[in-house]
């Protein structure tokens, strides 16, 4: 157990390095590309990504996740999942190549056909290293994953900027995706070789299928509940609105990917090993959510308040329509940063079927809110409806997931209360400072952002220290260890 705990802690550190470094690079690249590529061109790739990102779920049909969850795996299991990945990767590449005209017709944008066909090999490329990457996580060798991902991100990002500078527009983003996939696959095959063979075992397949199919089903429903908005915006509002929305959504997802996502990736294999010790899982879960909230709640609250200077500094004046979208989505992002750990509980305990059912219901609620929102108020209406649906369904989500490990909704509210009230105090301080000091001074956006960000951080940590919030000591211990 001590070795397992050590590997888990090390894994979290390397995951933070991976996610933090990757997101910093991607953010910088996004800020550069936002000045070289228009929202319309970003939206064009977003139209294709709605379909290609969904199809990636079926490259391994949840079998890689099943390998991580299974306590003991054999060479037959590895070879069987490799066969499944290759089959689905090849099929998806062929399907997207020949059905590209349908995607172009759906959006009534002929140029999408060639772009979709150019991106179609990404499925086969990803399939080749799917098992290698899954077993890297199973063994909690997050260091190797970090080095590979960061190397691929740097090379693909430099390529994208050079292409955008030479006026390649949306092709810059598409080529970045392909280069990223190729480098990741090559490096995983070299540095974590498994000597897979195209050998299929029916017994292994059936043993992994039940769990994997539930994971794939959950991922499918969850994907469309999160991306039906992109589909509707691209279809009915056009590329520019889609480009604005996808970038605002990406900013909202920062805490989920950089904090919750990092912890989730490491907690899943860790919880899978501890799946018979519910008490230990409950303790770790409560500490993890407490720490996540301590970081994400003030971050997203501050972003909601400082959306205008942030957009002007990071994206430029061509993206002003993003300001109200970011303000609303940021608050939703705070809630979702905690909810994202629920899936780890279901999968680690072998209850992926519950996650599937919950996600199915949630997808209906979200889809309904998207349709109503876009009909009533176009882009801003959709964003408001999405946020309302997210806030209303948060409590039922907590209840169902918490029930699996003996955590009530009241326990969860108490667990998050310090972060909530400290963030509220910080928000009040920022509003006062913004209205009475920074606003009348009419400073440049960059100075507004710097002054208010630093002030907000000081307000938050001062309030936390003053009221003796245990999260401060917890954060110190975690980062020290």
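Q: What amino acid sequence fits the structure above?
A:
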């Amino acid at each position: 157990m001590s070795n397992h705990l050590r590997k888990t802690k090390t894994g979290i550190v390397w995951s933070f390095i991976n996610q933090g470094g990757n997101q910093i690079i991607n953010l910088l690249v996004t800020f550069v590309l936002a000045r070289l590529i228009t929202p319309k061109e970003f939206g064009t790739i977003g139209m294709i990504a709605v379909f290609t990102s969904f199809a990636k779920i079926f490259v391994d049909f949840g079998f890689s996740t099943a390998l991580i969850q299974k306590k003991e795996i054999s060479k037959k299991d590895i070879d069987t999942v490799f066969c499944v990945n290759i089959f689905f990767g090849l099929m998806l590449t062929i399907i997207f190549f020949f059905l590209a005209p349908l995607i172009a017709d759906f959006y009534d944008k002929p140029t999408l056909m060639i772009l979709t066909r150019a991106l179609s090999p990404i499925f086969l490329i990803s399939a080749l290293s799917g098992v290698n990457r899954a077993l890297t996580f199973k063994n909690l060798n997050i260091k190797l994953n970090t080095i590979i991902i960061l190397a691929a991100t740097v090379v693909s990002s430099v390529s994208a900027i050079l292409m955008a500078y030479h006026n390649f527009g949306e092709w810059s983003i598409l080529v970045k995706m392909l280069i990223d996939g190729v480098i990741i696959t090559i490096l995983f095959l070299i540095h974590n070789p498994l000597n897979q063979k195209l050998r299929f075992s029916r017994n292994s397949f059936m043993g992994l299928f039940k769990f994997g199919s539930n994971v794939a089903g959950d991922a499918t429903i969850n994907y469309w509940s999160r991306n039906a908005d992109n589909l509707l915006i691209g279809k009915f509002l056009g590329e520019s609105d889609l480009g604005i929305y996808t970038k605002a959504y990406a900013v909202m997802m920062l805490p989920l990917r950089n904090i919750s996502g990092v912890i989730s990736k490491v907690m899943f294999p860790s919880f899978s090993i501890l799946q018979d010790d519910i008490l230990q899982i409950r303790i770790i879960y409560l500490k993890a959510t407490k720490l996540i909230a301590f970081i994400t709640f003030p971050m997203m609250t501050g972003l909601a308040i400082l959306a205008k200077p942030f957009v002007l500094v990071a994206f430029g004046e061509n993206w002003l329509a993003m300001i109200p979208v970011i303000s609303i989505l940021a608050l939703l992002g705070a809630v979702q940063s905690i909810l994202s750990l629920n899936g780890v509980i279901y999968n680690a305990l072998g209850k992926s079927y519950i996650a599937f059912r919950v996600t199915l219901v949630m997808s209906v609620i979200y889809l309904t809110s998207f349709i109503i929102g876009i009909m009533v108020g176009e882009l801003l209406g959709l964003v408001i409806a999405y946020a309302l649906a997210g806030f209303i369904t948060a409590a039922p989500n907590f209840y169902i997931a918490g029930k699996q490990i003996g955590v009530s909704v009241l326990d969860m509210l108490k667990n998050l209360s310090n972060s909530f009230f400290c963030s509220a105090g910080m928000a009040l301080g920022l509003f006062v400072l913004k209205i009475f000091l920074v606003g009348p001074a009419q400073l440049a956006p960059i100075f507004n952002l710097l002054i208010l960000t630093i002030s907000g951080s000081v307000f938050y940590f001062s309030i936390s220290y003053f009221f003796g919030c245990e999260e401060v000591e917890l954060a110190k211990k975690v980062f020290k260890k």
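Q: And what stands out in the fold?
A: The chain has a mean pLDDT of 81.
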